[in-house]
Design goal:
single chain, mainly beta, six-stranded antiparallel beta sheet, 2 helices, globular
Length: about 190
């Protein structure tokens, strides 16, 4: 497995699932997933649309805030909504949560784009975390890959048995605008992941 490098991206705030209807664009209907699978999930995990929250302070330069609302501007029309299911067995101290897009799997090289990057995210075992990433400037057909780096884990690649990961089982068509990516389930790296 070759190392991949995370390209710096705008850091966006986590949002509350119940608020995402007010902050998510309705443009998700014009962009979607290809292939025949029902959800982007690694390891066959089931998805949940339960609401949850995590907080961070302030606003990012993209205009997204931690309340699930967005300022006027391009962030509202280019949101990439994704529900990340945290396993009930989740343990450890988080270091960074990255959501990136890749043209092919397995991951080999840098991502085609970054949707979301958060340092020290607060996650709870069994949580269904909803994020609004930034899909502006991303066009084409891509897989979605989520990596949760833990303290003591990997740097550019997830460390087996320490970090968590997930990847969509099919591609999504990105048009540089809002898109609903559905749900994806994290698994312990090396435990059914990449």
């Amino acid at each position: 497995m070759n190392a991949w490098h995370v390209v710096p991206a705008l850091v966006l705030s986590l949002s509350v699932a119940s608020c995402s209807a007010s902050s998510s664009p309705s443009a998700g209907a014009d962009a979607g997933r290809t292939g025949s699978s029902g959800e982007g999930s690694s390891g066959g995990g089931s998805s949940s649309n339960a609401s949850s929250s995590a907080s961070s302070e302030g606003k990012s330069s993209s205009g997204a805030s931690d309340t699930g609302t967005t300022d006027a501007g391009s962030a509202a029309i280019s949101a990439a909504k994704l529900v990340i299911n945290v396993p009930a067995s989740f343990t450890g101290t988080t270091r960074e949560l990255d959501v990136a897009v890749y043209a092919s799997l397995p991951v080999d090289g840098p991502p085609a784009g970054m949707l979301y990057e958060k340092t020290d995210p607060v996650l709870t075992p069994g949580e269904a975390l909803t994020i609004d990433g930034n899909a502006s400037g991303i066009t084409g057909e891509y897989y979605v890959v989520v990596v949760l780096y833990m303290k003591g884990g990997g740097q550019f690649l997830p460390s087996p048995g320490v970090d968590y990961e997930a990847q969509s089982s099919s591609t999504f068509v990105f048009k540089g605008s809002g898109i609903d990516l559905g749900a994806i389930s994290l698994t312990l790296a090396g435990d059914g992941g990449r």
